Amino acid sequence: MGAVKVIIDKELKVAFNSLAIYIIYTVFFCITGFICWFSWKNVFYTGQASLSYLFNVFYWTLFFMVPVLTMKSISDERKDGTFELLFTKPIKPWQFLCGKFFAILLQVILCLLLTLPYYITLTSLGHVDYAAGICGYLGLILVSGCYISMGIFASSLTSNTIVAFFVTFAIGIWFQFLFEFIAGLFGSGFIAALFTYLSMGEHFDAIPRGVIDTKDFVYFVSIVTLFLALARYYISRTRA
C-alpha cells in the first residue's frame, strides 16, 4: 500500500498545482448551480424540496466531468515518456492503477463535499430524508468510481488525451443509454433482463431514494474491477 499512497500523493499534488482542476470545479458548480436554482425546471419546480432531482443533476454533470479528469491519467505518462520509467521502479501495475484511481476518486469526493451547501439549503426549506441524502452521495461516489475506471482504461489505450476522453464518453454512453435501449427492444425475457442489469441508471435510480440493494453494490464494484483489470491487462501487454 506504500506505493499506492505515494502515487496518490503525487497525483493530488500535480492536480491541485494545476489550474485545470479549478476550472473543472468552477464549470461543475456553474452548471449544477444554474440547473438546480435558476433553470425553468429547478429544485422548486415540483413545489417541494427534492433530493432526487438534486442528485440527478449531479449524476449527469459527473457523466461529463469525470472523463475530463481521467483523460490524462495514463495518456500523459505515455506522451511524456515517463510510462516505461515508472515500471523500472519497484511498483506493480495494479499499484499504479489503484493510485491513479483513488487519486481521481478523491478529487471527485472533494467536489461532492463542496456541494453540501446545496443539500443544507434544501434541508432548510423543507423536510428531507437524511438517510436518502447519505445514500444519494454514496451512489454518486459509486457511479463516479465506474466512470473513473472506464476513463483509466481508455487512457491506457492511447497517448492522445482527446481520444481517451471520447473513448471514455463512448463507453459511458453504452452504460447510460444503449444497454437500456437494447433491453427495450427485446421487451422481456433473459436478454432484456441482462441488458437492463447492465444499464447503470437501473442501479442508481433507487439509491437517492434511500434504497441500496446488494446487487446494485455488487454491480458498481464489478464494473470498477472489470475496467481496472482491462487496463492492467493492456498495460502489462504493452510493456512486454
TrEMBL record:
Transmembrane segments annotated in the record for this chain: 20-40, 52-70, 101-119, 131-153, 165-197, 217-235
* Species annotation: Butyricimonas hominis
Q: How does it sit in the membrane?
A: Multi-pass membrane protein
Q: Name one Pfam family in it.
A: ABC2_membrane_3
The cellular location(s) given in this protein's UniProt record come to: Cell membrane
Q: Where is the ABC-2 type transporter transmembrane domain?
A: 47-194
Claim: Chloroplast is one of the keywords in the record: no
Coiled coil (residue ranges): none
Provide the protein name. Answer: ABC transporter permease subunit
Write out the entry's keywords from A to Z: Cell membrane, Membrane, Transmembrane, Transmembrane helix
